[in-house]
């Protein structure tokens, strides 16, 4: 079986669902169930003997080692993290704890477990670390996209903590020979994304008749990838990636935030029209994010050439599926908009709108 961390979050739960839809191999899914972890994402797996969910914290190295010894996985795929840039600006501490110390504790557990393996089991073990394009910092308008050779220049507490974890993973390969692979992916979107991130937040606010907050001038550029394409890239890296290597993953799809929001409004106008107005009338420009990176763009040529991975969805096809999924799963959205969610919205947006 394989061992997944963070498999109740957005990308992790998509990975677990896709994996079990395509393979007979079991998964032990270890997740702390922070505000971002949600077992509702995995209800379709109830009664599926291949899925073993364990509530656990990656910072607890002894518990991680005990689970590795109990389940004896052939590979570990590490998604667990604090993942939201705005939260990292308000409260960076949890990002250092989970993303840096937690990844360190997990690496130590994986190293101890891997050292008990022999022969083929040892050679074929993989530690796949899921990271972000944000570690490379911000690009100018005419700069070439990030390659695996681009120097790290993280600008937010989130990206700095992910960069630190990437360095630790690299060091465990070089120093101890632990067979690690790192993927650095661009912005994901799709089903089960928590509505604190741009795309699900805009959909939730649009349908609720609330303002659609655009930070700054809305001219920041992100590369967007549909989540199942990211999951396919991770599976490919696990299957055929070379230990010690880094693979950038992206959708070849750069868009300005304001254009993403306008596209969402246009699809909602078509699929769930609001009488007498366009959802675009709810757009509000609000105070910018401190240190806001202007542009991310990913050169995904290496994973295409070496591992034969390519995204299946274009932004047009992926965003339509995503909007339809949110419209069809309004109960899921309502369930995650708990008291904790509302206090986050108050903390992040009240002052911005006033300014
Ligand atoms: P998410 O915030 O939706 O989910 C994170 C999951 O990790 C949650 O289920 C949470 O409960 C769990 N978790 C947090 N701290 C934990 C701990 N100490 N121990 C165990 N579990 C813990 O995040 P996501 O968007 O699914 O991102 C998953 C990974 O992919 C992260 O490592 C992130 O940096 C990376 N990534 C995300 C994106 C994106 O656009 N969302 C893009 C590139 C890379
Ligand atoms: P986000 O989804 O938080 O992802 P990331 O910061 O990791 O790229 O934000 C995507 C972009 O959208 C980013 O440039 C910030 C911007 N943004 C807004 O303009 N308004 C919002 O309310 C949010 C959450 C994000």
State the main characteristics.
three-stranded mixed β-sheet; 13 helices; Rossmann fold; seven-stranded parallel β-sheet; single chain; alpha/beta; 355 residues; 12 strands; binds nicotinamide-adenine-dinucleotide; binds thymidine-5'-diphosphate
Write the layout of secondary structure elements.
Elements lengths: L1 E4 L4 H13 L4 E5 L19 E5 L5 H11 L3 E4 L6 H6 L2 H22 L4 H6 L1 E7 L24 H20 L3 E6 L1 E3 L8 H10 L4 E4 L5 E6 H14 L5 E4 L4 E3 H15 L11 E4 L14 H7 L7 H14 L1 H7 L2 H16 L1
Helix pairs in contact: 1-8, 2-4, 4-6, 7-9, 9-11
Nicotinamide-adenine-dinucleotide binds next to helix 1, helix 4, strand 5 and strand 7.
What does this structure look like?
This protein has helices spanning 10-22, 61-71, 85-90, 93-114, 119-124, 157-176, 198-207, 227-240, 257-271, 301-307, 315-328, 330-336, 339-354; strands at residues 2-5, 27-31, 51-55, 75-78, 126-132, 180-185, 187-189, 212-215, 221-226, 246-249, 254-256, 283-286. It is of the alpha/beta class and 355 residues long. It has a domain at 2-189 and 225-253 and 294-315: NAD(P)-binding Rossmann-like Domain (Rossmann fold). A 7-stranded parallel beta sheet has the order 3-2-1-4-5-6-10, sandwiched between helices. Strands 7-9-11 form a 3-stranded mixed beta sheet. Helix 1 (10-22) crosses helix 8 (227-240) and helix 2 crosses helix 4 (93-114). 43% of the residues are buried. The model has no long low-confidence stretch (mean pLDDT 97).
